[in-house]
Amino acid sequence: MTNLQTQAQAAARSQLQGQVQNPPQGQTQATKPAEPAGAEPRNLPAVVPQPDDAHEGWLMRVMRILFGWKAAATRADLEMVLTAAEESQSGFSPEEAAMLKNILGLRECRIESVMVPRTDIVAVQQEISIGALLRVFESAGHSRLVVYNDTLDDPTGMVHIRDLIAFMAARASQQPGPAAAEGETPQPPDLNFAKIDLAMPLMTAKIVREILYAPPSMPAVDLLAKMQATRIHLALVIDEYGGTDGLVSMEDLVELIVGDIADEHDERAMPAVMRQNDGSFVANGRASLDDVRAAIGEEFDVGEAARDVDTLGGYLVVRAGHVPVRGELVPGPPPFEAEVLDADPRRVKRVKIYRAKNRRPATPRELAAPAKTPATREEAAPANSNAPQQRP
Question: Is the pTM for the entire model greater than 0.70?
Answer without folding.
Answer: no
